[in-house]
Design a protein that fits this description.
Layout lengths: L6 H11 L1 H16 L3 H14 L2 H9 L3 H7 L8 H15 L12
Amino acid sequence: MALTRDFKHTIVERVDRDPAFAKALLDEAATSFLNGEPDVARLILRDLVNATIGFEQLAKITHRPGKSLHRMLSPRGNPGMDSLAAIFDAVRSRLKVGIEVHTIEAS
């Protein structure tokens, strides 16, 4: 019988012990959003929020209801730009990183 482990628990532990992993998740969320994959970005952000600041603290930081934040980052969520920016900023601040956008010119 194979041993299995809850994915969310694995993410939380990995983020706790590997700050570079947390930063890579944030980078992937931002990249996914900018590349037209908002559904992927929301799910990555949800896992990152759960593993770092939690939705209760995110609600306090962003001045938005926790239930609304959960819905925004759900598979069918549809956060507005202001809310999404606030979420990215809260996670970015928690990880103590900056976000820079670099463009690559198409040939």
